[in-house]
Amino acid sequence: MGLLQGASELFPVSSLGHAVLVPSLMHWSFKQSDPSFVPFLVLLHLGTATALLILYREQWVAIIRGFFTAAIRGQMKTDSERLSMLLLAGTIPAAVLGVFLESRIKSLFASPYEAAGFLIANGILMLGFEVLRRRAERRAALSGESRDEQEAHFTSAERISFRAAALVGACQALAFLPGISRSGITIGGGLLAGLRHEEAARFSFLLATPVILGAGILEVPQLFSKGVPVGEYLAAAGLSGIAAYASARFLLRYFRSGRLDPYGWYCIAAGLAGLALLHFSL
Questions:
Q1: Where would a tag sit more exposed on the chain, N or C end, judged by fewer CB atoms within 10 A?
Q2: For residue 150, what pLDDT is reported?
Q3: Residue 149 pLDDT class (50, 70, 90 cuts)
Q4: What is the value of pTM for the model shown?
Q5: Which phi-psi region, left, alpha or beta, contains residue 144 (left: φ > 0; alpha: ψ -120 to 50)?
């Protein structure tokens, strides 16, 4: 589970959907309805967040310093200060929805059928994001501009508007549904906001960290109760972090030229296969 979570969390294929679906397909003994299941998943996510903090450690130092500097000054002057406020704007929608919809969201974690269905929906969303992006690229190409001028239409994470950051954050809130990929939905939201693919991935990974840490503060203390194998869970979180670090390094290279389409088709195929296997009890 740790390796599965870490490998799939940052890929746009929904680690949560896989975490709900795979145990049922593999006939593993633990149940998704167990009270410790969600805290366990959050602990695995903390492994992912740790990997992202290590990967972006220099940027996070600049972001945190920029946040307090801009807050005290009352004005943003540097890219790091602006990025810190954009991340704040993007974090608020997911945090608010997570608090108010917590019980309803958790009830979905026990249903592998719903996870498979949401995986199919996630794949359709990934393909839709790329269709819209290609239209924007075609419009730029038809304008008669040079390649460099066309690229200028798509910006870096520090340059998007606060409205766009809030849009990406609202997209992130959809990832509470098992099967909807947090990274996929936020990368897609970033593409709609005008980010380059690589920058959309970077903003997605940065945006994930505060949400995961906040969920950890709320959920992980529930693991420290009698009968919970905390040592095994921590080992799983460590494996999750290692897999997530490798995944993030790969994806940042991949999105320099790659797109969401392959992951969209994978999610549709995985969801359909999951539904078939569950239906026939294979």
A1: C
A2: 53
A3: low
A4: 0.85
A5: left
State yes or no: pLDDT of 59 exceeds 90.
Answer: yes
- Can you give the length of the chain in residues? 282
**109-130 pLDDT tens trace:** 557 888 889 999 999 999 999 9
pLDDT value of position 41: 82
- Residue of 9, 85, 80 whose CA lies nearest to 49: 9
Residues 6 or more apart whose Cβ sits within 8 Å of residue 273: none
What are the structure tokens assigned to 194, written together? 């005008």
Residue 255 DSSP code? T
The phi and psi torsions of 195 (rounded to 5 degrees) equal -80, 150
From CA 191, how far away is CA 164, in angstroms rounded?
10
DSSP secondary structure of 158-214? GGS-HHHHHHHHHHHHGGGSTTS-HHHHHHHHHHHTTB-HHHHHHHHHHHHHHHHHH
Q: Is the pLDDT of residue 62 over 60?
A: yes
d(CA 138, CA 133): 9
